[in-house]
Design brief:
CATH superfamily: Glycosidases
Number of helices: 15
Bound molecules: 6-O-phosphono-beta-D-glucopyranose
Structural class: alpha/beta
Helix content: 40-55%
Largest sheet: 8 strands, parallel, barrel
CATH topology: TIM Barrel
Distance between the termini: 5 Å
Shape: globular
CATH class: Alpha Beta
Radius of gyration: 21 Å
Length: 461
């Protein structure tokens, strides 16, 4: 069966500056939290591979963009590095400006629309020292950085994003110690969440005021939260997870307001952030034009059954437990659930509850550990990824047929890339990157398969 996607559908892949550029200490770039953390605790990073050892986009971007074209991508999302563009937080680094100009111009010359994100977990160390996202000064500095990007590149970039997965900064940096500064404190986490939502609204305000004839949004990792049963307490637990991890950003971004149930919960637990009335007005008045949705896996939730130690500091999971759905299908190469229908459920939710705002799949993909073992005849034979992407695209197509306002699908990622503490453990790319020779690129079977889908704008099932 032929499943034809809408005209002008965006096909491509996503990545980010800190995960691909490399060149992390040259041409005037200042350190980020990742450079700093690797320098101080390299043993935390898989294989002790640091942020300098990425897939070398800084020097290889022309070949990379040619490779994108070879597989018929018509769009690519990456991010700008704040620490590269404004090393002292105030002055434009001419080499960075020149680099991003060349990347954008090359993409446009090849017919690959640049979608640009402003923040992908890569807080400049200078800003972290000022308090990171807990600090109002950093919120203001970020707005200045955003304005600088719009001024320099906004004539050619027509789709902007303020943040990628801001909830991950909150979770990993302030609750679960997967990102620097490794704080474990729910009240501080709530402050970080509020300040990033505010920073996003401020950047949107600046963008709209600049009247640049483009659109701006945010990229959220939405994880549908399914209760174990119809039982009231299971449903309430799943609802709370949805509030904390999805709606905490989705509602202010699209509707300009926080869900009352979330406010009630935060207030009852004495976790309210510091804010002013004008902050709420700013969030209310500066909502997004477009939404990016990263979808990997859902959450299966039940009520909390294990008693909580009363001496333990409050954490989100004190109010729910993860549940192992007996019918779940697991990715055997990484341990995440594979649930393609989740993409359809997200589409329905956006249509029914968020005014059917224009959105796209900004990330979807299958991480595979030890993928070299699938190398045969010089190519990674990743049939599992073809099945994964095909199943997700089928559900996405169905949702579009039923009226979902979805304008594209990007896979994570174009070429295997460095990923935070996991570095190169899980591979995701259309192209394989060889650790021994990071300049070499070999297209995977999925890349070839996808090049047909992208060329024909059609999925054959
Ligand atoms: C996405 C992030 O959620 O997951 C990426 O936006 C990240 O930055 C990707 O690299 C894969 O993560 P992991 O942990 O499987 O390497």
């Amino acid at each position: 069966m032929k499943k034809v996607f809408p005209k002008d559908f965006l096909w491509g892949a996503a990545a980010s500056a800190p995960q691909t550029e490399g060149a992390s200490t040259i041409d005037g770039k200042a350190p980020t939290i990742w450079d700093h953390w690797f320098e101080t605790e390299p043993e935390r990073f898989w294989g002790e591979i640091g942020p300098a050892e990425t897939s070398r986009f800084y020097e290889m971007y022309p070949e990379e963009i040619d490779n994108m074209k070879k597989i018929n991508m018509n769009s690519y999302r990456t991010s700008i590095s704040w620490a590269r563009l404004l090393p002292d937080g105030k002055t434009v680094n001419p080499k960075a400006k020149d680099f991003y100009n060349r990347v954008i111009d090359k993409q446009l010359a090849e017919g690959i629309e640049p979608l640009m994100n402003l923040f992908h977990f890569d807080m400049p160390m200078l800003m972290q020292e000022k308090g990171g996202w807990e600090s109002r000064e950093v919120v203001e500095a970020y707005q200045f950085y955003a304005e600088t990007c719009f001024e320099l590149f906004g004539d050619r970039v027509k789709k902007w994003f303020t943040f990628n997965e801001p909830i991950v900064v909150v979770e990993c940096g302030y609750l679960y110690q997967f990102h620097y500064p490794c704080v474990v404190d729910m009240k501080r986490a709530v402050q970080v969440a509020f300040n990033t939502a505010l920073a996003s609204a401020k950047a949107i305000k600046s963008y709209h005021e600049a009247k640049l004839d483009g659109q701006i949004g945010i990229i959220l990792n939405l994880t549908p939260s399914y209760p174990r049963s119809e039982d009231k307490e299971d449903v309430a637990a799943a609802n709370l997870v949805d509030l904390l991890f999805n709606r905490s950003f989705l509602d202010p971004a699209v509707k300009g307001t926080y869900p009352q149930e979330l406010i009630d919960f935060i207030q009852a637990k004495d976790l309210m952030p510091t804010y002013g009335e004008s902050d709420l007005t700013c969030i209310a008045e500066n909502t997004i034009d477009i939404l990016g949705v990263n979808y990997y896996q859902p959450r299966r939730i039940q009520k909390r059954e294990t008693p909580v130690d009363p001496n333990e500091a409050i954490m989100p999971e004190h109010f729910y437990e993860n549940y192992e759905w007996p019918e779940r299908v697991m990715n055997p190469h990484r341990g995440w659930e594979i649930y393609p229908k989740g993409i359809y459920d997200i589409a329905v939710n956006i249509k029914e509850n968020y005014g059917n705002i224009p959105w796209y799949i900004s990330e979807n993909g299958m991480g595979v550990e030890g993928e070299e073992k699938f190398l045969k005849d010089g190519m990674i034979q990743d049939d599992y990824r073809i099945e994964f992407v095909g199943d997700h695209l089928s559900y996405l197509h169905q949702a579009i047929e039923e009226g979902a306002n979805c304008f594209g699908y990007h896979m994570w990622t174009f070429a295997d890339c460095w990923s935070w503490l996991n570095t190169y453990k899980n591979r995701y790319g259309y192209y394989q990157v060889d650790l021994a020779d990071k300049a070499a690129r070999h297209v995977k079977k999925s890349g070839l398969w996808m090049s047909q889908v992208m060329k024909e704008n059609t999925l054959e099932t």
